[in-house]
Amino acid sequence: MRLQVYHRTEYFYLEDAAKSSNELRLTPKITASQDVQRSIISVLPATRLEHYDDLNCNRVHYFTIPEQHNRLLIESRSIVETSKPNDLDSLPYGYTHSELKTGPIPEECYPYLQNSTYVENTPEIWREAVDIKGESEDVFQTGYAIMDYIYSNYQYASGTTTAATHAGDVIRERTGVCQDFAHAMTAFCRALGIPARYVSGYFYDSTRNRSLRGSEASHAWVEIYGGKAGWIGLDPTNRKVVDDTYIVLAFGRDYRDVAPVIGTYYGGGGSSRLSIRVQVDRL
Q1: Is the N or C terminus of the chain more exposed, i.e. has fewer CB atoms within 10 Å?
Q2: What pTM did the predictor assign?
Q3: CB count in 10 Å sphere of residue 139
Q4: Which residue segment(s) compose the domain that 25 sits in?
């Protein structure tokens, strides 16, 4: 599938701001299931963008605007060719919890078993995760059960959480948006010893009435480690196994590692107004 993404982020300041420093994770990753044909980022006020790859191999652009400004506009445009992850023609059952516990796992999995800024393992989270797992001995089956549990029992509601809301708070309140659902699922999986990483990106809503949740903005989901199947994407916001309608921007331990735009500035009148627009089209 060939997809085109337009992502616009715009800040308006009450008073002039200065010394604005920002990091952007807006360049789609090159993976086995997606090829980036074009990716362009532009910033106003105009400035020079530098880049590096972080510890999760995400492409990070950064810039500084030293002069005063009352508006910051960041636009990214990408064209990505996607295919089914892992070339899966069937669901990836067959990797068991006992294999996960006793067999070797890649070193890359270890960071995604640990606590992180917004995801922590507590006795309460572990007990609930065990209840959701039930009698399942298959890692994918357990991951799917966790995804289904969040989709069925949590309320999707904008404005009830912030970017700094922890997984434990989401699990207790059972409400939030895609970022919160991904944090909750990540917490449940890690509590059961399943390596789970937080993924940011986009998806193309192919339904006629745009019935999938979160297509109007950047999206978040979870990838769990499935042995020979590799990393398997699960979207608890829409109860979907990730397919070729999804585009991966970045992955990490939680939102802190993958935030599309993060930065600081001086001045600005103490607050700013944020406007975000995302559009994904099939070419």
Answers
A1: C
A2: 0.94
A3: 28
A4: 2-82+259-282
